[in-house]
Amino acid sequence: QGSANSITQDEQGFIWISTQGGLHRYDGQEFKIYASTPFDTTSLSDSWVWTVSEAKNGDLWVATEGGGLNRMDRATEKFTHYRNDPEDSLSITSDRVYTAMEATNGDLWVATLGDGVDRMKAGEDGVFRHYKHVHEDSSTISSSFTTWLNEDAAGMIWVGTGSGISRINPETDIITRFLFDSL
To answer: Once rounded to an integer, what is the mean pLDDT over residues 94-117?
Structure first.
């Protein structure tokens, strides 16, 4: 695959390359490719992978362009899919996931390409709280087009968006916007 969207190294030393043709693992000698296999519900849900991040337990969070979020169980190499279900308000908001980040407290934060940020609290597998942009409401995130997440030393969640940066206090859900000012 000629496109590399992101590269990361896990705690075991493996290099993971996210591509438009699947998730590639390099062990220093050989590549192993994980891709979507039709009718296999335990394979990667979509072969277009944006990013991968490692959970504290060693599992991998895999963000895909159209297949939602995937969790790879490293012991079995099987994938669990987190997909948008329009009939379920607690499902992930979009199948276009750009990145996922596990916070220090175990909560999972998910950036989507157009539908804001989702949070899955530790111990609440598959239940997502949504943070979206509302133009008239300055207490919402800067934009629903979100591209990056980070946690600072104080436990605040920082969200990179298409219209600036937002900071979410996970204890209070208070959001602060930091917008570009051209003056």
So the answer is: 97
